[in-house]
Amino acid sequence: MGSLPLDASLRPLDPEAFAGDSRAIVDFLAEYYRDVDKYPVRAADLEPGRLRKLLPEAAPEHGEPMEDILEDVRRDILPGLTHWQSPSFFAYFPMNGSAAGFAGEMLSAGLNVAPFVWVASPAAAELESVVVDWMGTLLGLPQRLLFSGGGGGVLQGSTCEAVVCTLAAARDRALARLGHESIVKLVVYASDQTHATFQKGARLVGIPPSNFRVIRTTSASGYGLTADDVRAAVDRDVARGLVPLYLCATVGTTGLGAVDPVRELGEEARRHGMWLHVDAAYAGSAAICPEFQGTLDGAELADSVSMNPHKWFLTNADCCCLWVASPGALTSALSTDPEYLKNVGTDGTGKPAAIDYKDWQISLSRRFRAIKLWVVLRRYGAVGLRAHIRRHVTTAKWFERTVAADERFEVVVPRKFSLVCFRLRERFAGDDAADELNRELLTAVNASGRAFVTHFVVDGKFVIRLAVGGAMTEMRHVMDVWELLQASADHVLRRYSY
Amino acid sequence: MGSLPLDASLRPLDPEAFAGDSRAIVDFLAEYYRDVDKYPVRAADLEPGRLRKLLPEAAPEHGEPMEDILEDVRRDILPGLTHWQSPSFFAYFPMNGSAAGFAGEMLSAGLNVAPFVWVASPAAAELESVVVDWMGTLLGLPQRLLFSGGGGGVLQGSTCEAVVCTLAAARDRALARLGHESIVKLVVYASDQTHATFQKGARLVGIPPSNFRVIRTTSASGYGLTADDVRAAVDRDVARGLVPLYLCATVGTTGLGAVDPVRELGEEARRHGMWLHVDAAYAGSAAICPEFQGTLDGAELADSVSMNPHKWFLTNADCCCLWVASPGALTSALSTDPEYLKNVGTDGTGKPAAIDYKDWQISLSRRFRAIKLWVVLRRYGAVGLRAHIRRHVTTAKWFERTVAADERFEVVVPRKFSLVCFRLRERFAGDDAADELNRELLTAVNASGRAFVTHFVVDGKFVIRLAVGGAMTEMRHVMDVWELLQASADHVLRRYSY
C-alpha cells in the first residue's frame, strides 16, 4: 500500500492508507523512545547548512513511500536534533511528552476541527472551558478565575501569546479612558528575572521600549520582586505623569526558579489600578501538589494567571492555560465579528452562554488542544500527575544536596522546585577565571553528548542550571549527570591548578 | 497494559505503553474516517452547557484506561463536534487533513522538540528553512522572498500571527525614523473584503482603530481592491499629516474568493514607502498549479507573502508559511537575546548562518511544524498535490455551472478557485424577502445534517458560500449537496409562492 504511486488518484484520508502510514509512525516513535538515550542529547552535528546540503533543492515531483521518508528521518534528521525527550535533557525547562499527551495530540490532529466560533465545533469549545476549570481547581486557583466563578480560561499556544493578549486587554482598558495618544504614557513593570518574552510582548502591543521597567532583584529576596521596589518605581513614573499599566509576577523564573510574592505584588498592583499577571509557566505544574500551592497565594488579586502544561505536565507541545478574572476585558480587546463567522440558524439556542474562543486569543484559527489536556488528566489522574511532579522534585533535591556536599561546588540559589542552579566555587580559580571555568565545564558536559544543561548569569556570575523534568528522567540519569559533572570538573580544574 | 493503575510508578513514555495507546487511537481515527459521513456535518447538539453537564466537575483522582476515555469521546464528544473532515463540509474554508499530514504531525508531536534557537534543534530549524524554500518555489514566488535569494520564510500557526509579525516589523521600521509618539499617525489599508483578523492584528500592535482604512470594493473589479482607490485614500491621509504604513492585499478573499491585483498594489505601496503584505491564506495552495500562478504576479513587489498549508494543502492544523523579503526587518522587531538562550560552546561553528526562529515569530516556544509540511510534500509530491487541487477546482466548476443553469439561482460573483458564491434569485421573493429566503435555505441545509455551508453578505445581499476542499470530498458529495439545495429551495420557495 505504502509504495503505490499516489499521484493519479490521491485519496488522502483513505482509512486503510491512513492506518498503514500511522502505524509505521507509531513503530518508528516507539523505537525512538527505546533508543533515545543512545543519541547525543544536544545535536552532535551543529554545522549550519549540513541538512540543506543533504536534501534535494526542490520538493519531489512524485509521491514517495512512507518507509523511504522515515529512513531519511532516521539518517538525515535525527542526528541533527537536540533530543528534548532524552532522559538526560536538563536544559532550559523540560518540554516533556507522554503516551497520553501524544494520544491527545493524535485525537486533536486527527479530528482536525477548528473551534474558533461555537458552532464550528461546540463540544471542542465546551471541553476547553471544562478542562481549564479542572486545571484551575487542581492548582488551587481562586474561584474568580474559573468559569464557575465568573472568570474563565482558554488554551493558548504559549505564555507569550497569553501575555500579548492580556497586555492588549489592559492597554485597551486604559486607552478607552485616556485616549489612544496616551499609549506612549503606559508603563509596564517586571523584574530582571522576568522572561524576556514579556518585554517582547509589551513591545508588540505598542508600549514604547522606554516604558519597560526592569526592576533589579537581589539574593536577599531570593531574586523575587519586592513590593517596595515596585512601589518606588511606580511612584517615580506617576510623578512624571506616566500611567502604570501592567505588572508581571513570575512563579518559577526561567533563570533561577525564583518566586515573586504574588499577594504583596497584587496589593501593590491594585493600589495603582495595574493589571497583575502571574506567569507560572514552568512551576505552575507543581501547584497540583498542596505543598506547592503556597507559591500561588494571593492569586485572587491577579487579573490573569498562566501556566504551560506543555512544560512539566506531560502534555506534548503546545498547550498554555490562561485564566482571566474578567473575560470581558479580554474579549473587548480581541473580538471580531465578521459576517462570514456569524452563526446563522443557531441563535435562540442559548447562544449567550456559548464561547467564541477566537475572541480570547490572537489568531482566528485554533487547534482542538482541549482534548489533549483532557486525555492527560484522565489517563494519569491527579494522583499520578502529583507522583510525577514529586518524583522530579525528590530527584532535584538529591542533586542539590549532593552538589552542596562537594566542596568544589556551590548551590547558587536555594532550589524551589526541580531546577538546581550551581557552579564551581571561585576559590578554585582567580575571580576573573571562575566564569571561564564554569563555562568550560558546561561546554565539556554538553560536548560529551551524555547530557544537555544550560546556563544563566546572576549578579555577574555564570551559573549552571540543571532542570529535572523529562518524562523518562529517573534518579539514575541524575546520578549519571552528577558523575559526568564531577569527571568534567576534575578535568577542567586540573588545567587551573598549576 | 492499558488498564493498569498508573498512579504509583508512572512511566509516561514507556515504549510498549506508548505503542499500545497510540495504536488504539489510530484504530479509533481510521474508524472515524470510515464513518465520518454518517455524522451530522454541523454539530447536531448545539445547546451550550450540554457537555459540561455530562462531565464530572473535577479531574479524576486516578488514571483511567484508554479504552474508557475513547468510549467517552465516542459518546460525549463526537456528537457535539462539527466535522471538518466530513466530505460534505463546505463551510468557511476547508481545513483538510491527510494521512501524510497526520503522520507529519505525529512525528512533530512525538519527537517533541522546540527549535526556538538553533542549538535547541538544528535539523528542525534547518528543515524549516528548506521546506519554506521548497514551498515558495512550488508557488512560483520570486527568488527575493526565498532564503536562496536573500529573503526567507518561517512556519507560523496562522495568518493572524504572520500579519501581527509583519505589522510589527513595518511599524518599528517607521517608528525608528519618526519616534514612538508617531504611532498614532500610522495608517494601514485594506479592502472591505480583507479578513477581519487584519484589523485585529493592526489593533494588537497599537495602530489606533481610527487609522484603519477599509476601502470599499465593487462588483466592477470583482471585489478586488484597485490601486486608484488606494491612492485616493493614501493621498487624503498624507494631506492630513498621517503616515501610510502597510497595505494588505488578498489573493482569494474569505467572503467571495476575490483577488486583489498584487502588481498594481505593489507599485502603489512602493510609491508611498508602505509595507505590502500578500495574504494568500486559502488560494495560495492553488498557485502550485501553473494556471493559477498569475494571481501572485507582482509578488516581487511585496515585503511579505503568506499562505496556509493547513487550509487546502492536506497539512493538518496548524501551519502557515510566511515569506519576507527582508528577514532583518522582521527580526529587528521580534528579537530577544536573554542569557539563558545563548548558545554556549556552539559558537565558532558558523553560527552566523544559523537561524534562531524565535526571532521570526511572536512566541518563544514553537513546534516542529517543518517535518509535517515536509512529509506532505514528500508523500504526495507536486504532481499528487496539483491533482488534488485540480480535482476540487473541477468539482467547483461543475457546481458553478449547474447552479447557473438553474433559473431559480444566480452565481453572485464568478468563481476563481474552489469557492462558489450563489443565492436564490430575488424575483422569487420581494426584494426585502430575498435575504430572508436565502437565510432560510441555508438554515434548512445545515439543519439537515447532510452538509454544512456558510454565508456572506455583499452589497447588502445575503449569499451562500460553498467551499470545496475536503480531503474526502468527491464529485458525488457536491452532487449530493446540490440535490439537497434544490429540495430545500423547493420547500422554502413553496412558502413564498402564495
Automatic annotation (TrEMBL), chains A, B:
Keywords: Decarboxylase, Lyase, Pyridoxal phosphate. Its cofactor is pyridoxal 5'-phosphate. It holds the Pfam family Pyridoxal_deC. GO terms for molecular function: carboxy-lyase activity; pyridoxal phosphate binding. GO terms for biological process: amino acid metabolic process; carboxylic acid metabolic process. InterPro entries: Aromatic_deC, PyrdxlP-dep_de-COase, PyrdxlP-dep_Trfase, PyrdxlP-dep_Trfase_major, PyrdxlP-dep_Trfase_small. Gene3D superfamilies: Aspartate Aminotransferase, domain 1, dopa decarboxylase, N-terminal domain, Type I PLP-dependent aspartate aminotransferase-like (Major domain). The modification N6-(pyridoxal phosphate)lysine is found at residue 311. One of its GO terms (cellular component) is cytoplasm. SUPFAM superfamilies: PLP-dependent transferases (SSF53383). PANTHER family: GROUP II PYRIDOXAL-5-PHOSPHATE DECARBOXYLASE, OS10G0400500 PROTEIN. Belongs to the group II decarboxylase family. This is Tyrosine decarboxylase 1. It comes from Zea mays. The gene is LOC100274380.
